[in-house]
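Think of the structure tokens as a kind of shorthand, similar to the way a musician reads notation: each symbol stands for something richer, in this case the local conformation of the backbone. In the example below we present two proteins back to back. Begin with the first one, reading the sequence and then the tokens, and try to describe in your own words what changes along the chain.
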Amino acid sequence: MSADEMLSLARQIKALDDELECPQGPRNTRQYILLLKQVRRCAVSLATLVT
């Protein structure tokens, strides 16, 4: 478990969450689903590192 890896994943999750909350442009449902899948992948990776 690397602290740098965990910090990197946490930053990715935060950036994706910010994008979901304050999009830079109009989005359709498919784009939101893709963003949510990215958040999920990062969260799962982070959980794997922590446990």
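Once you have a description of the first chain, move to the second and do the same.
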Amino acid sequence: MKTIANEYETLEAIKKAMAMYELKKADKDHVATPRYVVEDIYSLIDIESFKSLWFPFNHYDSLFKLRAEELNLKYKATHIFDDVGNDFFTTEPPIDCDLMISNPPFSQQNEIIERSFQLIDEKKNKVICFTISALDSRN
């Protein structure tokens, strides 16, 4: 039975989804990775050979995360500055994480690369995947 409270909750959820959509549309750092690219990457790196994955820059609709779910892979998905305190620069990778893969915000790619290599040096990650253009950054 629908009640006024249910209707209100539904309306609030719709408003929140619309606000998130508008925010994401305006966010120049968020460019979704197409499914075929995720599938090609997963195939190239033999994604199923990794024990534990970390997706540190993933929105709720990330195809990295959604494809991992389809493959029943063990993973942790966070976003660089989400509302539950998963700031990439202070969050530790999951225990036994052996792959960090994601599509990071472009405006902070150099800081993200530095933090990523720091995690490797600390033996908290073994493999990191970046785009060639990120690694070729002159900034």
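Compare your description with these statements about the second chain. The two ends are 58 Å apart (CA to CA).
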